[in-house]
Amino acid sequence: MSSFGFWDLFVALLSLLCCSGPAEMTFEVHIWPEKLVVEPTGSKRVNCSTSCAQPDRGGLETYLTKKLVDHQPQWQQYLVSNISKDTKVICFFSCAGKTLSKSLNISVYQPPKQVMLKLQPTRVAVGTSFTIECRVAAVEPLESLTLTVFRGQETVHNQTFVGAAPVPLEAATTVISTAPQGSGPLNFSCQAELDLRSRGGDLIRSISEPQVLQVYEPVQDNQMVIIVAVTSLLLFLFVTSILLCGIIGKHQCRRETGFYGVLAAWQRLPQAFRGQPA
Prior knowledge:
Blueprint (H helix, E strand, L loop, with lengths): L2 H16 L10 E4 L2 E4 L3 E9 L6 E5 L3 E8 L2 E9 L3 E9 L2 E11 L6 E6 L2 E3 L3 E11 L5 E7 L2 E7 L8 E10 L7 E10 L7 E5 L3 E6 L4 H37 L1 H10 L2 H5 L3
Parallel strand pairs: 2-8, 10-17
Antiparallel strand pairs: 1-3, 3-6, 4-7, 5-6, 7-8, 9-11, 11-14, 12-13, 12-15, 15-16, 15-17
Helix pairs in contact: 2-3
C-alpha cells in the first residue's frame, strides 16, 4: 500500500472516531431577537428555532401571556404580551434525549416624552450668575439617560445617571453659570437622550422648548459717580432752600412781633405818657 493510501485511511479512521455518535447530539437552539426592549404592557413576537431535524419537543418558558402564532418542526413563533417589567424568556428544544435552551432578556422602557427647561432669573447683568434647571418626566431605565444643556449649538453641561430604579423616576440636572461679556440675548435648550442600543432598541431623543436669557451691560463707574454727584447737589440745594425759608420766616416774624413791633407801639403813645418818668 502506498504512503498516500495509508494516510487517507488514517484520516478517515480519525474522523470516524472523533465524529461518531448521532448528529442530533450536536444540535443548537436559537432565539430571535437576541435582545428586546418594549414599552410597558407592550407585546412582541419571539421566534424559537433549532438545528435538530426532528426535535422531540420544544417551547417557550415564561410567566408572561404567550400565544403560539405559527410553527414548523424546527421553529416556533410566539406573541408575548402584558410585559410590565424587565424579565427573561427561555426557548428550549429536546433532541435525541438531550435538551438545550437559549434565553432572551426583555427590558421595559419609558421614553423621555416631556423635557422642561427653566432659567432663574431670565434677565441678568454681565458677570452675574444665573441658574439653568432641566427636568424630564418619568424615564426608564434611568441609567440609560443623558441630559444635555445647550447654549445655542454649544454644549454647556451633560449628565448621565447611574443605577437602576425600581420605578420610573423624574430626572433633573442643575447648572450655575455666569453671563459672559458682550453676549446679548442667549438661547438655551435641554435634550434628553435615552440610549437603548445595548438592549436591542434605538437612540431616543427629546428636546425642550428654547428659553432666552436677556443679558445687559451694568452702569459704568463714571456714570455712577455723575449720578451720585447730581443727586447730592440736588439734595444740598433742597436742604439749603429749607434753611433759607426758615431764616427768612423768623426774620419776618421778628419784624411783626419783636423789637420793631415794640418800637412802633411806643411811637404811637401820646407825648405826655412818653415824658413821664417811670
